[in-house]
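Task card 7
Instruction: Convert sequence to structure tokens.
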Amino acid sequence: MFIAYIVVTVITISANVAIVIADLAKSKFVLANSAEVGLPRSWLPWLAALKAAGAAGLLLGLLGADVIGIAAAAGLVAFYVGAVGAHVRARVFYNVAFPGGFLALAVASLAFAITQGS
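Output:
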């Protein structure tokens, strides 16, 4: 079970770091998606910072700071619930699998972090 925790959490960290880089680079797909769901471009650096903080917290959790890892995973779950909600609100369903995938990773990381922390 511990190996699954490490694998899932490392994948979650990697995915979030990748999207943080895309956000900060203002990649075309990020800008297009943001515009479709009605997200102002000025929010991108702030949202990238939240995702980066979540990834950093997950890493700290892997390094033994269990409470920080759990809090980070919970924060990412809340973040991606909001992202899926933004897609639903804007009726942009064709690519909702992307925030849904990030949400699934965050939920799995949270479940493993809770299990490992207790």
